[in-house]
Amino acid sequence: MGEIEEVKDGRAVREVSSTSSPSDYSPQPTYAEEVPEKKKTLWQKFMTKGSVLQIIAAALLAIAIGLIVTTQVSDIPDAAVALLAIPGQLWLRALRAVVLPMIVTAMIMAVQRLRTMTQGGGKAGKLARWTIGYYVITTVIAVAHSCLLVGLVWSKLMTVVSGEQLQVDESDQETIDERAAFEIHEVVVDMFYSLVPNNVVNAMATDSLLAVLVTAVVLGYCIKPGSALIRAVEEIEQIIMKIITVLIYFAPVGVFFLIMPNLFRLDIAEIGVNLGILIGATLCGMVLHLFIIIPIIVFLFTRKNPYTIWMRCSPAWITAWGTASSAATLPVTIRCVLAQGVPVTVTKFAVPLGCLINMDGTAIYFPIVVVFLAATQGITLNAADYIVVVLLSTLASIGTTPIPSSSLVLVVMICGSINVPVTGMYAVVVAIDWFLDRFRTMVNVSCDTFAAVVVTKMTGIVDDPEDTLDDAHADTAHGAGVDPNTLRETHGDGKV
């Protein structure tokens, strides 16, 4: 018996040729232990292109410069803010450009793998049920504890403002009237209509991501496995991942120029007591949800350390904070989730779906804003009002994608449903919304990463080793720097 050892795809491969059996004339590869990689120093990790340390350093530097300039300079020219935002906006536009084709290819390949995986039937339905069920339940929990806290604690701290502050400018009144024209039932109708496009090309052209996702799922189920069309989708997926790899290298620069110009717009002197309570209540609700409630759920289901998972996925939520867009962060989120050992099939189904319907941060925000607008007028909500807020906030947070102006429109609608007049304080909410939106997005993306880990545990889905190896060989043949199916860029030991 002869043995030949070599290294393939980062693993030690021992090819064994046997002469004892006539059926074994070709070498049989058997995989031994992975070859351990040499540990990098902290400086080497920092110097890695697009590393999380570079992103954190860029974010902290941008915050420091932004706060220093904001506090020292009384009037920052709009032209300076706009020009400084150009590099960040270009990077953000490039990320958004690859999101739609990434969703299409990811969902098609995920459904294909669900059809052909060796575990047998039933996995597709189980994956869909657990993913959607987890997203809906955590959203309801987010709304419920937000209403509880704002009703028992935060509303008591808010004060009634004077009549002048409640007056609405003419321009703001036009906007409010326009947004008040939307009815709650229209949200439900639009949400369901957005699932099935009457024109697929138009849905792709207008970035109707939910419609595109559903269409991709149908295509993935209908396309014949191994067909030329599947091979074309795989080629497109390889191209997208090459582009994403380059964009991630530029993540520190992009995050820096997205955060710094926006902080120039923050006027700390104008933040009054009520607005400070609004910001504090929103951030406290998100901290409670992200660091206590969701970790408890994750630990109960998986028996894993949720804080370790969250830290290893730091490039995703830091990028989310910088871009304020779950869709733009999607490539980074998928990369981080794959790095935690989550199966490709689960990642490429659960994460894009969560990007569109899992809005825990937004769900926390709605009740706080509605109560803020009521409390500043001296209006106290009763139990029935809070029940309405819970139901509508849950529905609205899921249906934000197809609605113009997103959460700001839905705030007006929810206020109208419980007879809370929209006053001049709404302009205050609009003025600070861009800042809180970053934290909402960060919570949304963080919860997507947790969901992928939980769904993996509960469905028992694993990657087919043969498919993974074939994808790795195909990627090597194409000279790609990153393989979308076997991407395991570890932070720590790469396990959850």
Automatic annotation (TrEMBL):
<dbReference type="GO" id="GO:0015175">
    <property type="term" value="F:neutral L-amino acid transmembrane transporter activity"/>
</dbReference>
<protein>
    <recommendedName>
        <fullName>Amino acid transporter</fullName>
    </recommendedName>
</protein>
<feature type="transmembrane region" description="Helical">
    <location>
        <begin position="349"/>
        <end position="374"/>
    </location>
</feature>
<keyword id="KW-0472">Membrane</keyword>
<feature type="transmembrane region" description="Helical">
    <location>
        <begin position="276"/>
        <end position="302"/>
    </location>
</feature>
<feature type="transmembrane region" description="Helical">
    <location>
        <begin position="314"/>
        <end position="334"/>
    </location>
</feature>
<dbReference type="InterPro" id="IPR001991">
    <property type="entry name" value="Na-dicarboxylate_symporter"/>
</dbReference>
<dbReference type="GO" id="GO:0005886">
    <property type="term" value="C:plasma membrane"/>
</dbReference>
<keyword id="KW-0769">Symport</keyword>
<comment type="similarity">
    <text>Belongs to the dicarboxylate/amino acid:cation symporter (DAACS) (TC 2.A.23) family.</text>
</comment>
<feature type="transmembrane region" description="Helical">
    <location>
        <begin position="90"/>
        <end position="111"/>
    </location>
</feature>
<feature type="region of interest" description="Disordered">
    <location>
        <begin position="1"/>
        <end position="32"/>
    </location>
</feature>
<feature type="transmembrane region" description="Helical">
    <location>
        <begin position="200"/>
        <end position="223"/>
    </location>
</feature>
<feature type="transmembrane region" description="Helical">
    <location>
        <begin position="243"/>
        <end position="264"/>
    </location>
</feature>
<dbReference type="GO" id="GO:0015501">
    <property type="term" value="F:glutamate:sodium symporter activity"/>
</dbReference>
<feature type="region of interest" description="Disordered">
    <location>
        <begin position="472"/>
        <end position="496"/>
    </location>
</feature>
<dbReference type="InterPro" id="IPR036458">
    <property type="entry name" value="Na:dicarbo_symporter_sf"/>
</dbReference>
<feature type="compositionally biased region" description="Low complexity">
    <location>
        <begin position="17"/>
        <end position="31"/>
    </location>
</feature>
<keyword id="KW-0813">Transport</keyword>
<dbReference type="InterPro" id="IPR050746">
    <property type="entry name" value="DAACS"/>
</dbReference>
<keyword id="KW-0812">Transmembrane</keyword>
<feature type="transmembrane region" description="Helical">
    <location>
        <begin position="132"/>
        <end position="154"/>
    </location>
</feature>
<feature type="compositionally biased region" description="Basic and acidic residues">
    <location>
        <begin position="1"/>
        <end position="14"/>
    </location>
</feature>
<feature type="transmembrane region" description="Helical">
    <location>
        <begin position="52"/>
        <end position="70"/>
    </location>
</feature>
<keyword id="KW-1133">Transmembrane helix</keyword>
<dbReference type="Pfam" id="PF00375">
    <property type="entry name" value="SDF"/>
</dbReference>
<feature type="compositionally biased region" description="Basic and acidic residues">
    <location>
        <begin position="486"/>
        <end position="496"/>
    </location>
</feature>
<feature type="transmembrane region" description="Helical">
    <location>
        <begin position="409"/>
        <end position="436"/>
    </location>
</feature>
<dbReference type="GO" id="GO:0005313">
    <property type="term" value="F:L-glutamate transmembrane transporter activity"/>
</dbReference>
<feature type="transmembrane region" description="Helical">
    <location>
        <begin position="386"/>
        <end position="403"/>
    </location>
</feature>
